[in-house]
Amino acid sequence: MRALRFFLIVFAVWLGCGPAMAERRVALVIGNSAYKSVARLTNPANDATLVGGMFKKAGFDNVDVRLDLNAADMRRSLREFAGRTRDAEVAVIYYAGHGIELDGTNYLIPTDAALETDGDVLDETVALDRALFAVEPAKQLRLVILDACRDNPFAKTMKRTIAARAIGRGLAKVEPTSPNTMIAFAAKAGSTASDGDAKNSPFAAALVERLPTPGLDLGKAFRFVRDDVLKTTGNKQEPYVYGSLGGDDVALVPAKPVATGPQASPQDAVRRDYELALQLGTRDGWTAFLGQYPDGFYANLAKGQLNKIAAEETRAVAADKARQAEDEKARLASERAKKAEQDKAAAAAKAAEDARLAAEKAKQVEEAKAAAAEQRRKDAEAAVAKAQADKQAAAELAAKQAAEKAQRDGEQKVAAVAPTQSPSSLSPQETAKLVQSELRRVGCLTGASDGEWNASAQRSLTLFNKHAGTKFDTKLASFDALDAIKSKQGRVCPLVCDRGFRADGDSCVKITCRAGYRVNDDNECEKMREAKPVPTRDDSAKRDTERKKVETAPSRPQSSGQFTCNSMTCRPVKPGCRLVKLNTPGEPANGSEVCN
Predict the structure, then answer these.
(1) Is residue 462 a contact partner of residue 480, using CB atoms and an 8 Å limit?
(2) 583 torsion bin: left (phi>0), alpha (psi -120 to 50), beta (else)
(3) Which tens digits make up the pLDDT trace of 377-390?
(4) Cα separation, 32 vs 527, whole angstroms
(5) What is the SS3 string spanning 271-333?
(6) What CA–CA distance (Å, rounded) separates 383 from 378?
(7) Is-contact 91 75, C-beta < 8 A?
(8) Per-residue model confidence as pLDDT tens digits over 278-297
(9) Cα R_g (the chain), whole angstroms
(10) Contact at 8 Å (CB) between 301 and 274?
(11) Which residues on adjacent β-strands are paired with residue 99?
């Protein structure tokens, strides 16, 4: 087997397959904290030390960490780093400190800068373009990380020589002109970043967590960094990346080789020898391979390659015979040989041509078979590699989750052993008052912090559990709950306002509608409808009084229903009168009218 491998390697080297150069990665890390003209920054030096250690653990070939550089030292460091990037595949610059944007151009501020006027920016700072120039020679990846978007004290005291000159609050947007170049800002263009309350800034902590993940594409890693910083800062700080990479994944740390156990698979040696024989592509190479590995998947592939070579040899022999037959036919024709000899030569030429065409067709068939077999081999190897990679990724994920769980359990145990204030030093009422105060701060309690752990306080802790994903016992105010609520920087429970009020920041304000409009059930202003007249019923009491008066009043004289007639007409008898028969001359036939 050693003789076979030596034989194949010699031929591979003869064909020009030299060893590949190892990928070289270099990094320059700068942290400026001790500024002479403004207040000292706490985190940049700590962040630079942390990030520099991350690059060293990630296996970078050269990591240069520089702290508190003046203008001359910054320019010298960038010049020396540019010399190291000429033979590097990956070049990274990380800068933490103050930065400033002037008329759309970004500048990094050394520790000795005074910046009394806007004109001093050009003389006392280092342009961001100088850092981009330093990483330009790298062949595969050029990365500049700027943790320099802090609220700039220089901009507040700087005198403007031109009133219209623009001095930004943060850093300006940058679009790299070179391919495979990325610029990562701690905060989006025009906004500022926070140093946080911890030893390191939220941006630096997220970088150290995400960037060294083996095999993780850089674009995806920075998206994870963005999510981590947004979560840590309560959506107040959003990192941003300018520039882009190609379609292939580019990882800051290469993927780890797939673990195959304590002993390499026997198929690995067969595959390597097969690839060497394939690269050689001769009958002797495949014959030697089959002599070493007569059976198995790769042996069948090798036999297919031998059939391909045999078909090519047959085709070459047939082509040579066809050419010789044509030459003989032409010779006889030129020598005016007998017709029988010419016919014989023509028949031989035709037969040779037919044999050549058949050999050509057989060669194509064998080539197609060999190509299909080779593709199946590649697919099978890719499937095996993917399965192994998935298995390793699942194992790494499980290990990471176990480590995170152990870390969380450890933090909870530490919090239980050493709380912010021991239970012995605070009464239950004082503890409840502290928890209520923190619940009010995160928007879960609307009542007073009176120290009474009543139903309202219990409902507020229930709301916190719901929106924060915790499971604290709501029947009592505990130190564990207090520490968990303190860890939240912004509002946790959504603001809920009564009808007629709307949310304005962290308070409810009354909704005021213009004339002719009113607040409806959806807390929106709607136009009031005109009132329609409503029919009213009669006053029954008045009606009863009038009826009683009528009933108690003396009755009026009523008509008797009689009629009196004369020669001309008839009329009713007057009320209170009647007809009486008097038998007097000229009396009407029906009687005379007599009244009381």
Answers:
(1) no
(2) left
(3) 778 777 777 777 78
(4) 62
(5) HHHHHHHHHHCCHHHHHHHHHHCCCCHHHHHHHHHHHHHHHHHHHHHHHHHHHHHHHHHHHHH
(6) 9
(7) no
(8) 887 788 888 888 888 888 88
(9) 50
(10) yes
(11) 108
